[in-house]
Design a protein that fits this description.
The chain has helices spanning 2-20, 37-44, 47-50, 66-71, 82-90, 137-146, 168-171, 185-191, 220-223, 226-248, 250-259, 268-282, 291-302, 321-327, and strands spanning 22-27, 53-58, 77-80, 95-99, 107-112, 127-130, 159-162, 177-181, 199-203, 215-219. By secondary structure, the chain is an alpha/beta fold. The strands form three sheets. A five-stranded mixed beta sheet has the order 2-1-3-10-4, with helices on both faces. Helix 10 (226-248) packs across helix 11.
Length: 328
């Protein structure tokens, strides 16, 4: 009888613990891939469970805008690039950066070398592929700093080709350059049979116009709720544990991502390569936003000449409250 009661008590305790887990919904910026490995690792390794969290990870896609999802209450926290987040904030959606797992930018422009492009100034009078849906902001700021107009080809102008999320415009010679990420589209070009020697790349990080990518954002009004703030502290702590595990175990992390890819579209080779590149971008970050990186992003976005991405210095767009509690 005592054994039965003990077993029943354990079962009841386990049930209560399961019921007590706080639910968190995370909206990703893009589809399931190694770009988001830290979150899948945290889930797979039980890091979220250890923090009393039940986390649902929602993949993104070409028709999903993270800012719209969180604005509509479809997520508690979202992965977003800071340019899009700050632009949304200026328009009235009060997003707040609570953590910054990515230290460096992976964005770059990849060009055919045989077009004669060898330096950024050579981009004038070219056709350049650019992603939109909020991803165009860093590019527009860069062109403005170079004094290149984005209204059309000319001595001081470029034709902006609205690029899909593929590399076809470059391969088909519809564009002289296209937008790529160091961990994804660049390698799609290489996998298509192009030699690296045939290309020239301009990393935004090297050009001094890099803006912060893949930060964690919540709505300011939600963060004012102590219970929500506590939940985010635990979420960030577990997520960063997942990110550091992924950095140290890239191949295992890639396998975990593949296990979570419901579409079956990802390949082992691509995800392992992507994870090795992603680890370079998260290296050096403990999850806390570096104010200097934030300021550089703001200055880049405000230097857009007659059409800046944001028109004034943001207020309250980031906080260390969550990472201070989660990481110290």
């Amino acid at each position: 009888m005592k054994q039965f009661l003990a077993a029943a008590a354990l079962a009841l305790g386990a049930s209560s613990a399961a019921q007590a887990a706080d639910e968190v919904t995370l909206q990703l910026k893009w589809v399931t891939q190694a770009q988001f490995a830290g979150y899948y690792v945290a889930q797979d390794k039980g890091f979220y469970e250890e923090e009393g969290l039940d986390v649902s990870i929602l993949p993104g896609g070409p028709d999903i805008a993270p800012t719209q999802v969180i604005a509509g209450g479809g997520a508690d926290v979202t992965v977003e690039w800071m340019p899009a987040a700050l632009a949304a904030r200026e328009k009235g959606l009060e997003l707040v950066n609570i953590a910054q797992p990515f230290k460096s930018s992976g964005m770059m422009l990849t060009c055919w070398k045989d077009t004669g492009i060898s330096k950024p100034e050579d981009l004038a009078n070219r056709t350049l592929g650019v992603w939109f849906f909020g991803n165009e902001f860093p590019f527009m700021s860069w062109m403005s700093q170079l004094g290149i107009d984005t209204g059309g080809k000319g001595e001081n102008g470029v034709e902006v080709l609205k690029q899909g999320f593929n590399v076809d415009p470059l391969l088909q010679r519809q564009a002289d350059c296209i937008s790529t990420m160091t961990y994804n589209e660049y390698w799609q070009v290489i996998d298509a049979g192009v030699s690296p020697d045939e290309l020239i790349t301009f990393k935004y990080e090297d050009q001094g116009v890099a803006t912060l990518e893949d930060g964690l954002y919540v709505l300011e009004e939600n963060l004012e709720d102590p219970a929500f703030a506590d939940k985010m502290e635990r979420f960030v702590r577990a997520s960063m544990k997942g990110w550091k595990y992924a950095e140290e175990n890239p191949e295992e992390a890639a396998e975990i991502v593949l296990d979570n890819d419901a579409s079956g579209a990802q390949t082992e080779e691509h995800q392992k390569r992507m994870m090795s590149e992603i680890a370079k971008l998260t290296a050096g970050s403990n999850g806390a936003l570096d104010p200097a990186d934030y300021q550089r992003t703001v200055e880049t976005l405000m230097s857009g000449g007659s059409a800046p991405v944001i028109t004034k210095e943001p207020e309250g767009a980031w906080t260390h409250k969550v990472t201070d509690a989660a990481l110290n």
